[in-house]
């Protein structure tokens, strides 16, 4: 849709929601809402709950800007509802959202596309999980299959830490991913309109880029562009676009990598609804490419569509 067309529509900014990332989503949504108002759009902020279908009808929402994170917002659930209701929305469709949110299926898609992933093993609730079952050694990373913002993630360096890490991860999901720890630089690629904008390097003050490092000022250094040799930088950008396509993503995303000193690019995940807060990486990458926050929001909005009926 064009800007002129969109300015005749009622835009619902969907935020908050029911996941463990609710507070982050409220910040993302508030920033997006203010940007749309500043650009002259008829936009309403909507805190998503289980009555969201009724609220969308009551508010006469024509287009949805999804600023949700985590379950029910980033996993295809809200996208499916919007498809049924015939309300165009921003970001990826049902299948891509569900694939990206499930780290296990996403890894399989990445591997099929020829991307490099860390060795891993999946455990389900009720399994007798033991380090002896792994085909790789400590340290390992333990994470829930379907949470974002590093919720429930632990790095296990000693055998005595494994059981507690698994218990913490199982608080958030029935399936747990145990990956070989990869020592490398944390590099994130920003995707807009299905093209890589650039790559940013994150140097967290904590052991890894955890929840505090992502959302607390001063807990991580952001280096833009990422400190990589030119050819490796281009390789990471290409890998980001390939990962975005491998899951069938639409419009925009943020693709997270670990890049080793040897030049290997291990893909961690694709975030189909990356954060839009003051500390978020996609807006920072966009600024480095000359795209201000309001312009970024407007370009994301312009790509809103119904994906199933296309």
Q: How is this fold's topology laid out?
A:
Elements: H1 3-6, E1 10-16, H2 22-38, E2 42-48, H3 52-58, E3 63-66, H4 77-85, H5 94-101, H6 103-112, E4 120-124, E5 140-144, E6 154-156, H7 162-170, E7 175-180, E8 185-192, E9 195-204, H8 211-215, E10 220-223, H9 230-246, E11 252-259, E12 265-271, H10 281-288, H11 293-302
Parallel strand pairs: 1-2, 1-3
Antiparallel strand pairs: 4-7, 5-6, 5-7, 8-9, 8-11, 9-10, 11-12
Helix pairs in contact: 2-11
Provide an overview of this structure.
By secondary structure, the protein is an alpha+beta fold. The protein contains eleven helices and twelve strands. Strand 8 and strand 9 form a beta hairpin. The protein is globular. The mean pLDDT is 91.
- Count all strands and give the number: 12
Which structural category fits the helices and strands?
A: alpha+beta
The fraction of residues in strands falls at 15-25%
H-E string: HEHEHEHHHEEEHEEEHEHEEHH
Order the strands across the largest sheet as they lie in space.
Answer: 10-9-8-11-12
List unreliable stretches of 5+ residues: none
Number of helices: 11
